[in-house]
Amino acid sequence: MASTFAVLADPSRREILDLLRERERPVGDLVDRLTLTQPTVSKHLKVLREAGLVEVRTDAQKRWYRVSPGPLAEIDAWLAPYRRMWEKSLDALERRLDEIEGD
Amino acid sequence: MASTFAVLADPSRREILDLLRERERPVGDLVDRLTLTQPTVSKHLKVLREAGLVEVRTDAQKRWYRVSPGPLAEIDAWLAPYRRMWEKSLDALERRLDEIEGD
DNA sequence: CGCCTATATGCCAATCGAGCTATATTGCTG
DNA sequence: CAGCAATATAGCTCGATTGGCATATAGGCG
Q1: Which CATH number goes with the domain that contains A39?
Q2: What are phi and psi of B69, to 5 degrees?
Q3: Which domain, by its residues, includes A60?
Q4: Most C-beta atoms within 10 A of its C-beta, which of A57, B8, B32, B42?
């Protein structure tokens, strides 16, 4: 998991993931939707691939990329022990709102 | 949320958060537990503070740091739409295991 | 006030990462 | 095979970031 956070730290890569979450896409499709050159997009895809966050399928010259969510599940697991902390805060917020509503 | 991932990308900072998750701690306590110098730890704490991931309480010369989980909840929200993707995979895995068990 | 403790800040060196342009590679098609 | 389309790689630059050492600041204490 070590480097998954580092991979997700880049906004362009998160944007790519968000696009691939909708559907599988070839590289050119991503280039059209981002304000980055094709080589830059390919480089980000390589990083995402090596981190296990996307997978490729070859179809003639096209490479169809799709999300591979495994590492995201590990991030989720890292978050788990913190989750109760903000749930507690949210509960407190809810109670406050209930109080106000009660007035 | 933009930069929260970048802040979490550094392993030292994640380690600091993990230590603070157990309990509130003064800076010197963190320095003792990490292989970093005091100025470096203070610098990481500054980054965490500015990202809203920790809060400080002053007590004479000591500064007690604790986790402030708000930004983590935002990470969790970003993950949400992906969650069904790996839950689906886990479900498939479970079904496979059930099949094997059924043999 | 002088000194000690605890923490923060300034400055520097080294490294890393993102983006670009130019070029290589791979596969189809006439 | 020539040529086009789609993608990948190489090489470069610039800016950001990490970590350390030295030093400043702030708060007790004798």
Answers
A1: 1.10.10.10
A2: -80, 0
A3: 4-102
A4: B8
